[in-house]
Amino acid sequence: MQTRSGSVYRKPDTDGKSPSRKRRRVAVDFFDGLPDDLVLSILCKLISSAQSPSDLVSVMMTCKRMNGLVMNPMVLSKASAKSLAIRAKNWSESAHRFLKLCVDAGCLEAAYTLGMIMFYCLQSRSPGAALMAKAAMGSHAAALYSLAVVQFNGSGGSKTHKDLRAGVALCARAAYLGHVDALRELGHCLQDGYGVRRNVAEGRRFLLQANARELAEVVPTATWRCQLHQQQLRSDFGCDVPVAEPHSANRFMAEWFAGARGKEAEEGGLRLCSHARCGRPETRKHEFRRCSVCGTVNYCSRACQALHWRLAHKSECVPMGRWADGVAAAAAADADLAGADGGNLN
Ligand SMILES: [Zn+2]
Ligand SMILES: [Zn+2]
């Protein structure tokens, strides 16, 4: 085999014996001869397409040189969301430090992930929001949408800190970048006139666009996509389209609050978003709006409400006081839900 320098690797032994120590040393020498910039460029490709943090750890454990080169800011700045997908049970000071290094290297994914963890899990509101803002300024769609949720709810502050217009503006920016939840949120805002002038037709257009984008993310082939899209349009918003995987930051929060920490928050009067894949907790009492039909579920956003409606709540939602109001209440709820892409929030 010809190398870039013109050397030729020796052919392997035909007798099946393990390579001699001399030959192993030759192979190591070839690697040592590779210039740093070439290895760095390979590592940049690797970290941007890594499927889990273990991909990164495997490379770092290869040798001292690789360990040092992975920590190069040029490589860290390219870290993908999956390579930073730390599980809540593995959270530690060193994981925090590693994310911080990636942030300092200019990685927007790391800024968003660490921002969400600090804001919601570690309750370090201002630094967390600042990191999310850093990612949002670099046009990170999920960060823009998360900041919109913060503005809509006035998270981290009091009820008076809600800024609906800022929420809509952030949502519009994230929707422009193709973020599905932002498209859906914006569609509902336009339909209801929430933080923006009411425009039902435009709102409906955004909701259809959200469904089409969601479909494109989860359905691999164009033929399937076309068939499902037609079915989806026929049934308006009720089609059983598979839901895309949540962002690793949402998975982290869902895991973080799944155990004792979640119970502790609930004992303190703080509820979690009922859409289990979201993982956002309230930052003050009664921050999230609840389903006005049954009153048993709470959502951080309409996007979460619409998804949870489709996944589970549609079959669980029973109107409050049904025993008193009888069929009339059920009929009114059904009519409301049919027109609102799933449930009502108050
Ligand atoms: Zn939510
Ligand atoms: Zn309900």
UniProtKB/TrEMBL annotation:
<dbReference type="InterPro" id="IPR057136">
    <property type="entry name" value="At2g35280_TPR_dom"/>
</dbReference>
<dbReference type="InterPro" id="IPR036047">
    <property type="entry name" value="F-box-like_dom_sf"/>
</dbReference>
<feature type="region of interest" description="Disordered">
    <location>
        <begin position="1"/>
        <end position="21"/>
    </location>
</feature>
<dbReference type="InterPro" id="IPR002893">
    <property type="entry name" value="Znf_MYND"/>
</dbReference>
<dbReference type="InterPro" id="IPR044508">
    <property type="entry name" value="At5g50450/At1g67340-like"/>
</dbReference>
<dbReference type="Pfam" id="PF23310">
    <property type="entry name" value="TPR_27"/>
</dbReference>
<dbReference type="InterPro" id="IPR011990">
    <property type="entry name" value="TPR-like_helical_dom_sf"/>
</dbReference>
<keyword id="KW-0479">Metal-binding</keyword>
<dbReference type="GO" id="GO:0008270">
    <property type="term" value="F:zinc ion binding"/>
</dbReference>
<protein>
    <submittedName>
        <fullName>MYND finger family protein</fullName>
    </submittedName>
</protein>
<dbReference type="Pfam" id="PF01753">
    <property type="entry name" value="zf-MYND"/>
</dbReference>
<keyword id="KW-0862">Zinc</keyword>
<feature type="domain" description="MYND-type">
    <location>
        <begin position="275"/>
        <end position="317"/>
    </location>
</feature>
<keyword id="KW-0863">Zinc-finger</keyword>
